[in-house]
C-alpha cells in the first residue's frame, strides 16, 4: 500500500508540475512554446483554460491525498 501511494505521489507531482507550466501566464508560459499562444489569439481558449484548471485541481487533490495517506500509514504503523 505504501509503495502504491509513493508511486502515485511521484506521478501526480510530475503531472501537476506539467499542468501548472501549461497554464497561460502573463508572458504566455510554457504553453506558448507548443502553439498555445497562437490558438488563444485565434479562438477563445477559455474552455481549454477551464479544463486545465480542473485537471490541475484534481491532481492537487490526489497529491495531497497521497501525502495525508502516507503520513497516516507512518503514524499508525509505529
Automatic annotation (TrEMBL):
It is a multi-pass membrane protein. One of its GO terms (molecular function) is protein-transporting ATPase activity. The keyword Cell membrane applies. InterPro entries: SecG. Its main location: membrane. It comes from the Bacteria. GO terms for cellular component: plasma membrane. One of its GO terms (biological process) is protein secretion. The chain crosses the membrane at residues 51-73. Keywords: Cell membrane, Membrane, Protein transport, Translocation, Transmembrane, Transmembrane helix, Transport. It is found in: Cell membrane; Membrane. Involved in protein export. Participates in an early event of protein translocation. Belongs to the SecG family. This is Protein-export membrane protein SecG.
Amino acid at each position: 500500500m505504501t509503495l502504491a501511494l509513493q508511486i502515485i505521489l511521484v506521478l501526480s507531482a510530475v503531472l501537476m508540475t506539467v499542468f501548472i507550466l501549461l497554464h497561460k501566464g502573463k508572458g504566455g508560459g510554457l504553453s506558448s512554446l507548443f502553439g498555445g499562444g497562437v490558438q488563444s489569439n485565434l479562438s477563445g481558449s477559455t474552455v481549454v483554460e477551464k479544463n486545465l484548471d480542473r485537471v490541475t485541481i484534481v491532481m492537487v487533490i490526489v497529491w495531497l491525498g497521497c501525502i495525508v495517506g502516507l503520513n497516516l500509514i507512518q503514524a499508525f504503523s509505529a
